[in-house]
Amino acid sequence: MKTIYTKIITTLLLLFTFSPSFAQTAVTGVVTNSQKSPLEGANVVLKGTKYSATADSSGKFTIDTQEKLPFSLIIQYVGYKSKEVTITELQDTPLEIILSEENQLIEVVITSRRRIEKAQNVPIPISVVSGKQAEEAGAFNVNRLKELVPSVQLYSSNPRNTTINIRGLGSTFGLTNDGIDPGVGFYVDGVYYARPAATTLDFIDIDRIEVLRGPQGTLFGKNTTAGAFNVTTRKPSFTSGANFEVSFGNYGFLQAKASITGALSKKFAGRLSFSGTQRDGLIENVATGKWVNDLNNQGVRGQLLYKPTENTDITLAADFSRQRPDGYAQVIAGVAPTKRAAYRQFNQIIADLNYSLPSQNAFDRKIDHDTPWRSGQDLGGISLNIETKIGEGTLTSTSAWRYWNWDPSNDRDFTGLQVLKLSQATSKHQQWSQEVRYAGDFSRRLSGVIGVFAIGQALKADPIQIEEAGSAQWRFSQDTPNDANGYSLWQTPGLLNGYGIKTKNTLNTFSGAIFGQLDWEITEGLHLLPGLRYNYDKKKLDYSRETYGGLQTTDPALLALKKKVYSNQAFKVDVDDTNFSGNLTLAYKASDRVNTFATYARSYKPVGVNVGGIPTDANGPILALAEIKPEQVNHFEVGVKTSPFDRTILNVTLYNTDIKNFQTLVQSPDVSLNRGYLANAEKVRVRGAELDASITVNKHLSFTGAVSYTDGKYISFKNAPLPLEETGLKDANNNAIYAKDISGGALPGISKWAGSLGGEISDSGKLFGNVGKFFFALDTYYRSSFSSSASPSKYLVVDSYALLNGRIGFRASEGLSVYLWGRNLLNKDYFEQLLPAGGNAGQYAGVLGDQRTYGITLRYSL
C-alpha cells in the first residue's frame, strides 16, 4: 500500500514538469444540436490524422491541432449529420458547432486497418471497448474484458499459464507450452506482445481496445489465425492535462491510477501514466493461517512525442509492470474414479497416508497446501514509432524490444501432502520486433496497406526449472500392490523424497513476413479486398533434464522404480518452415444503413516444438513428438452490419473454421509431464454465429448486448490421451491403453452460448459544482457449460453461470467523478477452469471465480 501512495505522490510532483506554455495550438469549441442542447460524447477528429477529442457533458472539447494550418475538423455524433469545419487561423473564442439530426448512425472510429474509419464501415467482425467503458465496468485487464465481448475466452491458472482465445481458438487450453505461437495477437500501440502473460497485467491509460475476430494475417505484422486485440493508449498532448483515480473496495481492494500530459517545448510533448492494484487474498490456507490469491500489481508507462514537422510524429514509449501476488492457488474441486486398481484410487491413497482434505466443498475456499504459491513476473519494454505522411498515405516504422521474467512456485498436487513438493518452471524471455508499413490511397478507387515484419525471440530456463517429489510421492506412484505381508518396494524409506529433475531449455525463434491488403472500390458501395502474406518461421530448441536426489542406491529394482517417476531426457530440434496465406473479402454497402461482407481466409499457425519434455516408451523419449506440425486453417464468414433505426446498431456474423493438424496440449499420467505436452489433432471444426447490438433510446437511456453461439468439435483425433476417469484402462488382454479416438468430442474451453447485456440510465446534473451526469448501470454476463480438458471428461466440465454487475454515481469530463460499483452482485459460486493434478491420480482442482466484490471509485480530471 505504501508503494502505491509513494508512486501517486511522485506522479503528482511530475505533473509540474509539464509546462503549459506551448499549448497555443489547441482549439476549443462547443458541440450542440439545433435546440442548443450540448452533445456529450461528440467525436471530434483532426482530418487526415489519428488525433481526436470527445465533447464533455457541456458539449465542450479541446483538440490539439498539431500546429497544422489550415486544418479541418470532422465532428460526429450518433444520429446526427457529420460536419466538417475548416480552420484557417486560430481564434481566442471557442468554436460553436451545431449538428443537425438525420436518419443515420455515426459511431466510434477505429484504426485496425491502419487508417481512421467508422467501425460499421469495416468488413471485419469487430468489437470496440473504449477506455472509459473498460474502466467503469471494472475491466482493468483482459480477463474482465471477456465479460463485455462474449466471443473472447481467457483462462489463467497463473500468468504464464494463460490462454486467450477468440471463438474458442488461439492458444492451447490448460497449461501453457512456449513452443507454439499464440493464435490471437495482442498489440499495444502497434507493438506485438508475444507472451500471453501480458494479458493478466493491469491496463495502463487505455484509449480503446479493438477486438478483431477471425484470421488477421494481412493487416498486422504477426500472423494470427483466430483474431487480434488492438490496444491503443492515450497519446501525449501539447495541451496540459491530468487524470487521477483511486478505488477502495472490500477484501482490502485498493487501486490507484494517474496520468499526466503536456508540452515540454514547441516540438516535444510527454505523457506519464501509473497504475497500482492491491487486494487481500480470497482463499484461506488453513495450514499456515494465511489468505492467498491476493493482488499486488504495479505498472508505469511513459511516452515522449517529437514533431519535427507537421507531417511527422516520432514517439518513444517505455513501460514496466511488476506482479508479486501470493497466489494463484487452486482448490480441489472433486475426485474422479479412474480405471486403476482400488489401491490406486485417490481416496484410498490419502486414507493410507492418514490424510484428509481440509474441505469437500471447493467454495469453502480452503486449502492446506504445503508448497508456497508464487507468481512473480516482470514485464516491460521500449518502442520507437515513426509516422510520416507521404503522398496520400502514411509510412510507419515500429521498432520494439520487450522482456518477460517469470518466477513461480506451484503446489501441483493441490493437497497438504508432500507429493509434488516443488514445481518451479522459471523462465526469461526477450523479444525484438521491427515493422515497416505504408497505408493510404493509391488511386481514387484503390487503397490498402503493405508491410514487412520481423520478430526474434529468446526464451530460456532461469537458470533451471525444477520438479521435485516429496515424502508421499511413493504412494501415488505405486503401481504394484503390497505383498502378503503388506510390503512393497515402493515403501523403501527415502526412495523418492527429494527426488526430482532439473531442466535446462533454450528456445530461439525467428519469424519474418511480407504482408498486404488492398481495397478496390469496383463501383460505388462494392469493394473487393484481397490480402496476401508470405511467412518464414524458424525455431531452435535445446532441451535437457537430469535427475537428482532421492535414495542413493545401486539396487536395480529400486533404480527402476525411480526411473518410472523421473528419468533423464535430452533432445534438440532445429526446424524452419515457409507458407503463403491470405484472404479475399467482397463487401457491399447497400445503403448508409446496411453493409454486407463475405470473407474466405487461409491461414497458418507455425510449426511448434515441445519445450516441456515429451512422453517416453520402452525405447526412451518418443522423439517424433518433439516437433509439432503447423496448423492449416480454412475460414469462411459472412456478415451484415446494420443500423435499422436511428441510434441503433445490429450486426450479425456467421462463420465456419476448419483446422488441419490442430495444435493442442494434453495431460499425461507421466508425473514428469505434469504440465502436459503438445500434440496434433488431425482435424477440428468451429462454426457459429454472433450478434452485436446497441441502441440509444434517448439521451438518458441506452442498451448494449452481444450473443455468440459456438460449436467446436474434433472432426478427427484418433490418438488422443485418455480422459481423466479412464486413466489405467486396459484391453481384453490386460494390456495398458494410453490413447483413445475422441473424434466428435467437444473442443475444450468453448461454451455453446455466451452473452452479455447492459443498460444505463443517466441525467445531467451538478455535483460539488462540477457539470456532468448522474448514472445507474447494470450489466450481465452468461456462458453455458464447457469442457475443461483436451480429451472430454464428464468430471472436467465447468457448469454454466451468470454474473450481474452494477454501478451508480456521477461522471464529469472535468473535475470530480465518483461512483459505487459491485461485481458478481448475486455472489454466484463458479469455476473458471478445472485442472487434473499431475500424474492423473483422480483429484482435480478448480480456478475459482471471485465472489461478490464492491467498492467506490473517485476520479479527478484536469
Global shape: globular
Radius of gyration: 28 Å
Give the number of helices. Answer: 6
**Termini separation (Å)?**
25 Å
Largest sheet: 22 strands, antiparallel, barrel
Q: What structural class should be given to the helix and strand makeup?
A: mainly beta
* Mean pLDDT score: 87
Strand content: over 45%
Q: Give unreliable regions as ranges.
A: 8-24, 102-106
Helix content: under 10%
What does this structure look like?
The structure is a single chain. The protein is 5% helix and 53% strand. The chain is mainly beta and 862 residues long. It has a 22-stranded antiparallel barrel. The two termini are 25 Å apart.
Question: What does this entry show, briefly?
Answer:
With 862 residues, the chain is mostly beta strands. The protein has 6 helices and 54 strands. The strands form 12 sheets. The protein has a 22-stranded antiparallel barrel. The chain has a 5-stranded mixed beta sheet with strand order 10-15-16-13-14. A 4-stranded antiparallel beta sheet has the order 3-2-5-6, with no helix packed on it.
Please give a handful of descriptors for the protein shown.
5% helix; 22-stranded antiparallel beta barrel
What is the strand and helix layout of this fold?
Layout: H1 2-15, E1 26-33, E2 43-46, E3 52-54, E4 60-64, E5 71-76, E6 83-87, E7 95-99, E8 109-110, E9 117-118, E10 126-130, H2 131-136, H3 142-145, E11 152-156, E12 162-166, E13 184-188, E14 191-192, E15 206-213, E16 227-233, E17 241-249, E18 253-263, E19 268-279, E20 283-285, E21 290-292, E22 295-309, E23 312-323, E24 331-335, H4 346-352, E25 366-367, E26 374-390, E27 393-409, E28 420-424, E29 427-441, E30 446-461, E31 465-469, H5 473-477, E32 500-523, E33 526-548, H6 556-565, E34 569-591, E35 594-605, E36 608-609, E37 616-617, E38 620-621, E39 627-628, E40 631-642, E41 648-666, E42 677-696, E43 701-716, E44 720-721, E45 739-740, E46 753-767, E47 770-783, E48 786-787, E49 797-798, E50 801-811, E51 815-823, E52 831-836, E53 843-848, E54 853-861
Parallel strand pairs: 1-7, 13-16, 20-25
Antiparallel strand pairs: 1-4, 2-3, 2-5, 5-6, 8-9, 10-15, 11-12, 13-14, 15-16, 17-18, 17-54, 18-19, 19-22, 20-21, 22-23, 23-26, 24-53, 26-27, 27-29, 28-31, 29-30, 30-32, 31-32, 32-33, 33-34, 34-35, 35-40, 36-39, 37-38, 40-41, 41-42, 42-43, 43-46, 44-45, 46-47, 47-50, 48-49, 50-51, 51-54, 52-53
